[in-house]
Design a protein that fits this description.
Number of strands: 12
Number of helices: 18
Strand content: 5-15%
Strand order of the largest sheet: 6-9-10-3-11-12
Shape: elongated
Oligomer: single chain
Order of helices and strands: HHHHHHHHHHEEEHEEHEEHHHEHEHEHEE
């Protein structure tokens, strides 16, 4: 028997984080080769926003109304100081300030009303994303073998990434146009009010924006790593929750805990790496907002000597402190990360989502050329030794086992029979040569894929405490009661239900004899849809009559059968017999 870390998906070796997807996911049909990664995400966003054009126009109108007063703030303050309070006309000064307050009130009213069309845009877009993502996930599952990891990734995308797109999309639609209008208003207002202050304001601002643009690709990588580790953590948690019994029985609890904690640590590291960029963003805010303020303060005496009025200088400061700095903070701290979350999440969703326009049209059936099914098991020049300097137990082993064939493996103890079974099951990897299961390299298959392609029964099978039906249905709980009873009848094992209170009777390793444990495991293997069944002394505790009945039943079952046995009578019923000894191997064909 091999150790649990070779056999269970929770303890199998994995690459270091940040992980990459196990299989390339099908992109949107609209994606062209060589396209930048964000293009399918943007295409998905266009699909999500389809039909929202009228509401987008309404949102744009309210945004213009909310941003327009920014151009009046500095001018109104300058006029209030120069023509009002410094000219000893307080009523005029208060009038200009009242105008500024009225403009601010109009801006707040416009912002408030912008949320209504925003909700009518974002919520339907979220629903379209959910439908497209769920539809794509179901199509991928229908096209491939069901995989818990694929389901976990789909759940992570539907729950986490769709919501990330929804929240970020709302922020982008509400703030991008407002920010752009605000920046234009500040620059235009400063140019009209104090042209000499334009250079001290714009130079640090442009440097800040350029630095932020240079930082964006790194932020995008960190955001992708965060989403990837979230998907890995979701898949790991799902595998753990669905395999608690198996983990307890195998004694692999600590390994599973370590595995999940490693995924948690990887997700935490990705989050910390993204969070560390926040410090850089704070520096950019200081450069873009406080830099112009410092430069303007230092150049104020010179500007005043060259004709700049105190009111104009105060108005320029108002543009910086009251309008430019909040707008720049939105750009660097809000819109930047929000845009990254939006594009990266949409990019991830685009690998799964299928839009209405991209769904394949229903076409009439066309003739299909059936390809011959690959062999259930193929060994190509396999060598194996238990250690670097140990004598090989298998040398240049070559054989093919197809659907409907029965191969018996015989030989003295220590000649590698059980080793051959573990190699055929993909639990061990050869030192040289290749092991193929249904045409696929066993060394490259995940534990889930291996379980779908072969069933291995050792001499001492695994059973858990529960009902007889639960043991027979593992790992397929969808098997009907009628199917269970038919399998028990086919293997002449119906007496199990009589002795243990029926299918709902409680059984377990301690409640069953060694022969009964083997019989339960054989019925479970008989019910498995795997194209290859490997029986490693799996009938050693049964009598000859029961063994004959089981051999006959497995010969009628679809798939190939590999039996490792010491009994000549069992080997005599096989189509071929593989003889192993310490120096060579030979293959004997028997007439069926």
């Amino acid at each position: 028997m091999t150790s649990p870390d070779r056999t269970h998906p929770l303890t199998a070796p994995r690459p270091p984080h940040p992980p990459t997807p196990r299989q390339p996911e099908a992109p949107l049909p609209s994606r062209q080769s060589g396209a930048p990664p964000s293009r399918p995400g943007l295409a998905l966003l266009r699909v999500a926003l389809a039909g929202s054009l009228p509401e987008l126009w309404k949102l744009a109108g309210w945004t213009v109304l909310s941003a327009a007063p920014a151009a009046l703030s500095g001018k109104a303050l300058a006029l209030a100081v120069d023509r009002g309070f410094l000219a000893r006309q307080p009523a005029t000064g208060w009038g200009w300030l009242a105008l500024f307050a009225a403009a601010a009130t109009v801006s707040a009213w416009g912002t408030r009303n912008a949320y209504r069309p925003l909700a009518r845009i974002v919520e339907p877009a979220r629903d379209r994303l959910l439908r497209a993502t769920a539809d794509g996930a179901l199509r991928q599952t229908a096209a491939t073998r069901p995989d818990p990891d694929t389901a976990a990734v789909a759940v992570a995308r539907i729950t986490r990434q769709v919501e990330a797109v929804r929240d970020s999309l709302a922020g982008q639609l509400l703030l991008v146009s407002h920010l752009a209008l605000t920046l234009v208003a500040v620059v235009a207002g400063t140019a009209a009010l104090a042209p000499g202050a334009l250079v001290p304001i714009c130079a640090p601002l442009l440097l800040s924006i350029a630095a932020f643009a240079a930082l964006t690709p790194r932020m995008a990588r960190r955001q992708r790593e965060l989403f990837t580790t979230e998907e890995e953590l979701t898949a790991s948690a799902l595998r753990t929750m669905t395999a608690l019994r198996d983990l307890t029985a195998c004694g692999a609890e600590q390994q599973a805990v370590d595995r999940v904690l490693a995924d948690v640590a990887a997700n935490e590291a990705a989050g910390r790496a993204l969070a560390r960029l926040a410090a850089t963003r704070h520096l950019l805010v200081a450069l873009g907002a406080r830099g112009p303020l410092a430069v303007l303060a230092l150049t104020a005496p010179t500007l005043l000597r060259h004709g700049l009025s105190p009111g104009a200088l105060l108005g320029a400061l108002a543009y910086l402190l009251g309008t430019l700095e909040p707008a720049l903070r939105l750009l660097v701290q809000g819109l930047g990360p929000s845009w990254l979350r939006l594009t990266v999440a949409a990019e991830r969703l685009a690998t799964t989502a299928v839009s209405e326009e991209e769904k394949p049209a229903v076409a009439p059936p066309s003739p299909v050329r059936r390809r011959p099914r690959p062999p259930a098991l193929e060994l190509r020049g396999v060598d194996f030794a238990w250690g670097r300097d140990a004598q090989p137990v298998l040398r240049d082993l070559r054989l093919t086992l197809r659907d409907g064939e029965h191969l018996a493996v015989v030989g003295p103890s220590g000649t590698g029979k059980s080793t051959l079974g573990a190699l055929a099951a993909g639990l061990l990897h050869p030192d040289r040569g290749h092991v193929l299961l249904s045409g696929l390299p066993a060394a490259q298959l995940s534990p889930t894929a291996l379980a779908a392609l072969r069933m291995l029964l050792p001499q001492e099978p695994y059973l858990f405490t529960g009902t007889l039906a639960e043991n027979l249905r593992w790992p397929d709980p969808s098997l009907s009661t009628a199917r269970l009873r038919q399998a028990l009848h086919d293997l002449d094992a119906a007496s199990l239900t009589d002795r243990h209170g029926g299918l709902d009777g409680a059984v377990g390793p301690a409640a069953l004899s060694p022969g009964e444990r083997q019989l339960v495991a054989l019925v479970r293997a008989y019910l498995s849809p795997a194209p290859l069944t490997i029986l490693d002394e799996a009938t050693s505790h049964l009598d000859a009559t029961a063994e004959l009945r089981i051999d006959q039943a497995f010969r009628t079952r679809p798939g190939a059968l590999l039996t490792i046995t010491h009994r000549p009578s069992q080997a005599a019923r096989a189509d071929r017999v593989l003889h192993l000894d310490t120096t060579a191997w030979s293959l004997t064909h028997r007439p069926r």
